[in-house]
Amino acid sequence: MKKIVALLAFAIAVNTQPVAAQQTAEVEIPDLSAYILTPKPAATPRINGAKVFGLRPGSPCLYTIAATGDRPMTFAAEGLPKGLKLDAQTGRITGKLKKKGIYNVMLKATNDKGSYERELRIVVGDKLALTPPMGWNSWNCWARDVTQEQVLSSARAMVESGLVNHGWSYINIDDGWQGKRGGKYNAIQSNSKFPDMKALTREVHDMGLKLGIYTVPWVGTYAAHIGSYSDNPDGVNQWIKDGLHNEHYRYQKKGPDADYWQDRKEYYIHGKYSFVEADVKQFADWEIDYVKYDWNPNTRYHTKEMFDALRSVKRDIVLSLSNSAPLADAPFFMENAECWRTTGDIRDTWASINSIGFSQDKWIPFCRPGAWPDADMLVVGLVGWGPKLHYTKLTADEQYTHMSLWALFASPLLIGCDMARMDDFTLSLLSNDEVIEVNQDPLGLHAVPVWRKGDNSQVIYVKHLEDGSLAVGMFNRGEKAVNISINPRMLGLYDGDRVVRDLWRQKDVGTLTSDRGERFTALVPAHGVSFVKVSPGNSDKQYTEKVTYASSKKK
User: Fold this and answer.
1) Which of 114, 226, 456, 516 sits between 20 and 30 A of 322, alpha carbons compared?
2) pLDDT tens, 67-77?
3) Of the candidates 342, 338, 328, the residue with the CA atom closest to the CA atom of residue 306
4) Active site annotation includes 345
């Protein structure tokens, strides 16, 4: 085991005084290097990330070409439409497009080891998030204690670790940033832990990343800060007027009978007065890119109100609903949000991953580009939901299952750990481009179960990919290692040879030939997975060649 002693600095100044003292936290991190399967990226260029990108007419564009390989590296974009420009050194595409349309652009990355080309499809229309959002969220590590400096630290770590080169782009602030109302729109302003939200956004954008923020359609949030509704027409909640808050304007009763949990009914309410439009205008002025909207139950009225407000500003802001979205309203969410949480809060235990991960089938019909059922954040690395962090309680095999399921289900991928202190194993989980490609596949389909053992201890999921190939996850939910097999008939494949490629190891590991009725068998550890890609899929050529041969033989 490795012991890492780290200083957690929570000293954002208020009138030059710290809001919290520095704390020394001793964190024990297991050495999981023996379980690393992902190969190191090659020195030659490789373009990764989304192959399709959506924006609305007139909205500012920020797209960072994700590419691994030795630096320095230069970028080019053939066919880039007028209105957009590329920075050849950073690989960032910026600008605006006025008219709807589809633009096929050939991207190129070059270094002294070689070059790499790949197509990007830019779709200007009504849909955003044409692939599942990939990024980081502050809640699972710092919860309500999050600070501006911690958010910046995470953004810097996303760049310095190289995750930005694999397609990760969002840096999302969860609950805990809110102060009180004011400013140009009488909107929520940030508290003293976030002294300059506009500067924060600018710095995150300058790294080629995007910034997200959090609010609720209640008087108060889950962490007891103000929401986008109020019980007073001036927007100043009564508990703020009564002084029932701490220095960060978090609800706090005084005296020995104060009980945060018992008092929730005072602010877990919608209130009479909506300030949603005011808050969205402020978010747009801050140049926010993503809004997490959190309450339960996720009602149609409040969803539509926020969606319409976001669409009224000249900025593309992804709407992510939370939590436990009702299945009955799934068709509505598809048209009025980009993402919606299908569950309550995830935890870093096998019981949580097992329960959430294998209960997503009901959302299969509602998953497509621009509409993503969200199975919640990735609980890998250092998590803790507050100042004191711990290493995830998931085993290495359970973490492979976690990441493989989220890739197959096209769930948004939001890292929940302290990225500034990622170990090599966690980094390897988050930087496997072949696994990420399954999640980011342009078809945007949710995997379907094609086989289950009677006791449901084993299950095989298949996801169809744009190139016709199939991503296959063979999962063992049991307590002992077992052999799990696939064959062409199970996958619906007819004549021809198929290559079986291990996605985590990024290497070919077998073949399937339908003519010989072959099977591919993997020994899958307890709570683990064998995650493979089978290619090519069926094609007209296979069928027509067989027909032609049979016809000529008959003559």
Assistant:
1) 456
2) 999 999 999 99
3) 338
4) yes
